[in-house]
Model the fold of this input.
Amino acid sequence: MSKVELVNNKDHHKIKVMTHRSSQLGDEVSITGVFPSEFVQLQNEYVVFFKKNAQTGLFHSVVLLGFAEGENLYLENDNWMAEYMPLSILRAPFLIGFTEHINNGVPEQVAAVHIDVAHPRVNYEHGEPLFLEHGGNSEYLTQINSVLQAIHHGHADDEAFMQSLLKYDLLESATLKVGSDTLTGLYTINEDNLRQLDASALEALHQVGYLQHIYMVMASLGQLKSLVNVKLNQSKQQSEQQSEQQSEQQSEHQSPPQSELKGTK
Done:
C-alpha cells in the first residue's frame, strides 16, 4: 500500500532511492504514460499509442512496453534496453502533489514533490540520497524536480493535443495480436482522415506543433516490428527452456536399464 508524504529534510534526510532497473522495483509494466515533449526521442525506440481512461473518458499518450499484463520487453537482466527512458518511469517513487499556500490572503494550491515511502525503491542503505549530509537538495533530487516539472506541464500539453486529434477525427482504434496475446483498447492516428484535412486545418495543427507530434507518432509505428520480434524470441527461448526441463525431468524419473548377462555353453 502506498504511503505518500511531502518531501522534506526533516523526515527524509536519511532516505535513499535505488535507481537501477528491476522487476522487483516496480518496472514490470506493459504500458506507461508519455507526453508530447518526449515524442521525438520516443519514436526512435518505442511505439507511441493513445489510450482512453475508463474512468474519465479522456485520452492520453502511452508507449507500449509489452503485450501481456506486467510484461516489460525493455527490461532484460535488470537493464533497460533503450537509450531513452520515459519520464513516467524515471519519476518513481516520486509524484506531484499539491500543498496549500496563502498568497496575499488568498489560499492557492501549489505543486510540490511528494514521495511514496512504501515504494520498494525507498530504503536507508542503498541508492541515491535526497539531501546532502549538511543540508540542501542532492543532485538526484534536483533532477527529480526537473522530471516532475516536465510531467506537470506535460499533462496539460497532452490534454490539448488530444483535444485537437478528436476535433479533426484523427484517432482510430488498434488491436494487436502477437502469438496468444491480444491487446485492445489502444488508438493510433487515422491516416486516411489526416490525408483528407484541408490546408487550413493542416496549418492550424502546424502552428501549434501538433503536426510534428502526429508525424512522430506515425513514425514510431516502425518500432512495432522490433518489439514483436523481441516478444517472439523470448517466447521461443522460454519454450525451449521448458522443453529441456521436461526432458530432464523425464530422464530422472526413468529407471536405468537393467543389463542381462547370458552365459554360453
Summary: The longest helix spans residues 224-253. Residues 78 and 157 are 32 Å apart (CA to CA). Helices lie at 9-12, 39-42, 87-90, 139-167, 191-195, 199-207, 210-220, 224-253.
